[in-house]
Amino acid sequence: MHTFTATAEPQTDIDDVARLVAPDGERIADPDLERWVADVDTAMLQSLYRDMVLVRRVDTEGVALQRQGQLGLWAPCQGQEATQVGTARGFRADDFVFPSYREIGVQHVRGAKPADFVLAWRGESHSTYNPYDINTATPQIIIGAQTLHAVGYAMGIQRDGTDQVAAAYFGDGATSQGDVNEAMVFASSFRAPVIFVCTNNQWAISEPVKVQAKFPIAGRAPGFGIPSMRVDGNDVLACLAAMRWATDIARRGGGPAFIEAVTYRMGPHTTSDDPTRYRDKEEVERWRLRDPIARVEALLRKSDAFDDAFSAQVAADADALGADVRAAALGAVTRPAIEVFDDVYAEPHTGLDEQRAWFGSYLDGFSDETAA
User: What 8-state DSSP symbol labels residue 277?
Assistant: First the structure.
């Protein structure tokens, strides 16, 4: 099952991963993984492809909007669509997901609306959706903090006596944070039904993963008593299979599971980053040949399930979603500055009242200038 022990080899071969679809679209036999996706027919494979194309369009639109001054920042996910869509499609609707700031594809699969992708990055609201509407927490900016939240939620599931699972998404860089390791200690000790999804996209901002992880990251989890799997993060079927494997463990009372999805961040860390200062063009081009969307297209073409009509429909759907995302950003009406204090707490808070009063006085100081 491609699980890891302490004897795993140093992290030198990024192809040493579980895989069901090769970069050229060839189907690979893997009996252990195959049973978790035995129900995936042509229609479902086409829907996985469609999801990834739509996610890439949202991402492209987000980058463009930031460059045009419509968003304050954007964290691109190009190249990571299979990891996000594949794993997210492995959840039930009542599972609860805790994403980081880059999981656009997870939000899409969970039911986010066009405005949900951009209004927070525009600074219009603290959270652009009610987490309980789509059972997905507000994307976390603090590196690794969401792992603690996910474990806490999972322990609550235990007390409710249901078979839901919680999941936390984080990058390879976050695995060096104390929060992630502390979360894994609690998850293992209490056998919490939580899935840890590490998106190893090779770079923690400007630091390559091989600097902080000499051995595969998936090999760390067994040290906490957590079973793990290392999969090709550019293979949407492998990612779906891995999540189904993990959720099966958690739902049956087996405790947490860990997935390392090996992929690549094709763009910058955020739109404030310049990856050309620390990455070689040759490396980027090597990964471009492993494009997750092109891989599924090749697989579909091999079974005559990718024709002009299907391609045109997916492109039209992507155009429509992209237009809606852009319209949501351009049509946003910025609220009065004082409303930044609204909805911070569910109940009245005296400390916040004092801050609101102080900020109100500060804003009033500009009233004469406005009148003039």
Answer: G
